[in-house]
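Thread: "does anyone have the structure for this chain?"

Original post by V.I.:
We have the sequence but no experimental structure in hand. Need at least a predicted one for the grant figures.
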Amino acid sequence: MTEGAERDNWLIIGPEFFSRAQERLTFDVPAALSNPDAMARPDTHNADPALLAAIAAVRPIKPAAVLVPVVQRDEPSVLFTERTAGLTAHGGEISFPGGKIDAGDASPVAAALREAEEEIALSRRFVSPIGYLDVYMTPFGHRIMPVLALVREGFSLRMNHSEVQDVFEVPLAFLMTPQNHKRESRDWNGITLTLYTIYFGNRKIWGTTAGILRNLYGRLCRD
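Reply from O.Q.:
Generated one for you, tokens below.
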């Protein structure tokens, strides 16, 4: 990245970041969230079309939604959860609040807000959803709808320790700096997956969570 391009990236972390989000994102639900024949955009996963097709073919489809909470501070930050270590699925990993879209959820937004309340008691009166990022598909059949939201200061949190063992924030500027986006490889069914990883101190943000952050960078921090 050139010096000028890097400077431009830092300029849009403030108010322009939120105005860009409102201009570029919508609440139109992509077909890929639930349609077996629809696929996510290849650039969302940093994957070639053949690999993406293999991931898309995994059944059953499990639609889910996560909240990507950007806290409106002098230096905006992103709120993360660390899942309880003893969980059978993704124990100890860093994630966004969220989970399965239930039949009673009116929309992916409703599901993400409900899950955030259940996991960390984040009251929706402090949360202003902005729009959807791109559907993220996992090799386990999950099709995840990330909901970008602005979170106003003044909220308090209470962890549901059966699901979450820690909550922390990372500066948005750090997460939107592409030099911090590393790539690591994993094997899946004999196929090599290349996944994004972001290290922040002793925290390792990787896999789906890092992939969603990379998608956020691509949607809002690049022209």
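V.I.: this helps a lot. The radius of gyration is 17 Å.
O.Q.: and DSSP finds seven helices and eleven strands in the chain.
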